[in-house]
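Box 3.1 — From sequence to structure: PLP-dependent aminotransferase family protein
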Amino acid sequence: MSYDGISVNVGWTTVNSHTSPQSGTNLDPWYYNYAERTAGLAASEVRALFAVASRPEVVSLAGGMPAVSALPQELVIDSMNRVMREQGPVALQYGSGQGIPKLREQILDVMAMEGIRASADDVVVTTGSQHALELVSKLFLDPGDVVLAEGPSYVTAIVIFRSFQADTHHVLMDEHGMIPESLRENIARLKAAGKKIKLLYTIPSFQNPAGVTLSWERRLEILQIARENDILVLEDNPYGLLHFDAPPPAAMRSVDEEGVIYLGTFSKTLAPGFRVGWALAPHAIREKLILANEAAVLSPSSFSQLVVSEYLDSIDWRAQVDRFRGVYRERKEAMIGALSEYLPGLEWTDPQGGFYVWLTLPPYLDSKQMLPRAVKELVAYTPGTAFFADGGGRNNIRLSFCYPTPEAIKVGVRRLQSVINGELDLLETFSATGPLETVRDRGYSAPPPNLD
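Predicted structure (token representation):
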């Protein structure tokens, strides 16, 4: 059908240029029908990189993919076979919205390694810890609410908070983690502006993306600040067991049972493909989490839970975690060694566990704009802007050492050196203020790691 306007074909329907905007657009006929909260959904730099990083010729220092090759496959295969042989009908059936009781008991043993004592009744198994993060956000966040988080912070947490139309405000960090005084200042400023602060989100051990660890003294002080201001703490702890030497301080949940929701996962200490995580919550919140879990997925995968439970029951899983520590320690040392060799004029964090190094570039470089050159040079990284809700981190890069081999890490950092020097050469050519020192000049003095 046509009128005096122009008809545009959009697939199975036709949108006329003179019809109401509610008809949609020529790219999406349902554009004006989406809920307002979908405005917060956008592809992150991390997601966009996975397609590039999967090319075999590209050294990916981008995604935080665990080294699952360090997990003996026969251990997992044996666990799967036993589950199907002995519990097949249960494994293939719907399960509880809270999770299998035996696995919840075993999760208590995992958390005990970080000082947590709890009841299995307060554990809710989820489809990965990110699912738990989404459920907590669904329970607590209304449009316009505020979440306080470290700056930088986990990219998908920021996306989830935004999807519920909440605002993320960043708290300054240094080499010892979140700065309590900055937290106090943020709370005072936001309260004075009439804002409602619902959650304090933190990754206290080997933080993603900065790799730093919150000190014990600061953990206690931050918990006290949260209690004084009636702010629920959301402690996300995927990396806590993956320390290289000394373990991190005990979990924040170990000293505050009522003010902290603790999120854990088997993605980093077993394998992400099982998609098994959990939340440990105060009793009243636990009950709502179960209802939210059932509303979202009915029940987490019985098969995955039983396989993980069988794995924990039948092998020395602590020894396997220790094996992962050795793998990641070797790769972190390769990363630090390569940075020292190829980019000696820059600054970076030196994590004592986890997956990530946070690199600071000269202030006049933009890591996001530099990324196409990096892809051309066959190296991938994650721009620092992915980890800020306010556009910060432009001269930062998150480098992941968890997935590539030590040899590949060295190749990747050498390629990154070429990328950075190429950008500096370009700036020098068109600079109106004179020559710029490059990272080839070992005398270059970079600022300390930019964690704010």
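Summary of the box: Confidence is low (pLDDT under 50) at residues 1-21, 442-450.
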